[in-house]
Amino acid sequence: MIDPLFWLGLSILLVAVSLTAVLVAALPALQELARAARSAEKLFDTLRRDLPPTLEAIRLTGLEISDLTDDVNDGVKSAGQIVKQVDQSIDSAKKQTKNIEVSTRSVFTGVKAAWKSFSRPPTRRKMERLSASQRKAVQLRLRETSLEEDSPATPAEPYSINDEVSDWQNTPED
Q1: What is the separation of C-alpha 97 from the centre of its chain, rounded to a whole number of angstroms?
Q2: Does pTM top 0.70 for this prediction?
Q3: Domain extents for the chain?
Q4: What's the alpha-carbon Rg for the chain, to the nearest Å?
């Protein structure tokens, strides 16, 4: 049949042609690969040169942020303490206001009671309720006041003995 040497030569020739075709087809891909390797090398050089300062700046920024966070936390705490002090001051002022209100009411009540007792018409009391010594003292006072009434500055209304008795003895009626 055919010589095996021929087939061997033919197969070597086909392998050589295939390898040449692969080389011809792979040559542009290899050139692109070399170009990509050079670009990667430039990128790595740039990263090696620029990345450490950037990382350092990021680290410093993180430290500054944590310092600012601490400052803000301190400010919030002090603001909270100030708010508590203001609340305590307001509570104290409210208590003082209530105390003043109670005192003012007491004063006004006292003034009202005094005004009522001074402005009310004198109550008529009977002379019989007084002891003999008290009656004599009242009569003496009445005589003295009647002498004063006879002076030019006499009041328009006459003063009665019962009025003097009620003013002199401030005991409530039974």
Answers
A1: 21
A2: no
A3: 21-94
A4: 60
